[in-house]
Amino acid sequence: MPARSETDDVHHDLRDLLGHLEALRGTDLSRLQQARLDLAFVAAHAVARRLGEAETAGSVPKIETATGTRPPRVLVVDDNSINLHVALSMLRVLGVEGVAAQSGDQALDQLSAFPYDLVLLDVMLPDVDGIEVTRQIRSRFGERLCIVGVTGMPGVADVARKAGMDAVFAKPLRVEQVAEAIELCTSRSA
């Protein structure tokens, strides 16, 4: 039996790490612990991609755009800096760059200044809540923007959809949900 190379060892260790992280994702963790776990999971997947671990990184889809098209522009709105960091890291793993806003007012300013395709919007913001931000976005920009709400509160999804959100995901946000939001956005604009 041939000896394993250092590269083989790294690939083996990475697969083990991803397996352990995946097992922890379903356990009862605090929001901070879950956010840290998600960051570790995203970082491990990014390393797997760089190492060419296709079968290991395969559970995190890379967003592909058609030749000649640009990747979607994503605005992430959350007053919690950890949640912002996690969402922006997930976008990077998916091959999409995001821009952060920490309030509803900042989000509306960003949307007035730059064209975006998708808004990942915390439903419960301290200044102008995500429901009102959604109403203002729909009033100013119509239906061209895809708005996906993110909430830790049960029972607000129906209200958020009635306000004009295209979808609502429960916190903690998962990389698969971010990919689904981007797919929703890109399929809508196609």
Can you offer a commentary on this structure?
- This protein has 190 residues and is of the alpha/beta class.
- α1 (6-25) packs antiparallel against α2 (31-50), α2 (31-50) packs parallel to α4 and α5 (104-113) packs parallel to α6 (130-141).
- It is elongated, with a radius of gyration of 18 Å.
- The protein has a five-stranded parallel sheet, with helices on both faces.
- The chain has helices spanning 6-25, 31-50, 54-57, 81-93, 104-113, 130-141, 157-163, 175-189, and strands spanning 74-77, 98-101, 118-122, 146-151, 167-170.
Brief description of this entry?
This protein is α/β, with parallel strands linked by helices.
**Strand percentage:** 5-15%
Q: What's the CATH class label of the largest domain?
A: Alpha Beta
Assign the structural class, choosing from mainly alpha, mainly beta, alpha/beta, alpha+beta, or little secondary structure.
Answer: alpha/beta
Uncertain residue segments: 54-68
Summed up, the domain count is 2
- CATH architecture grouping of the largest domain: 3-Layer(aba) Sandwich
Name the average pLDDT. Answer: 80
Total number of strands: 5
- The CATH topology name of the largest domain reads Rossmann fold
For the sheet with most strands, the description reads: 5 strands, parallel
SSE order, one letter for each helix or strand = HHHEHEHEHEHEH
Structural topology:
Blueprint: H1 6-25, H2 31-50, H3 54-57, E1 74-77, H4 81-93, E2 98-101, H5 104-113, E3 118-122, H6 130-141, E4 146-151, H7 157-163, E5 167-170, H8 175-189
Parallel strand pairs: 1-2, 1-3, 3-4, 4-5
Helix pairs in contact: 1-2, 2-4, 5-6
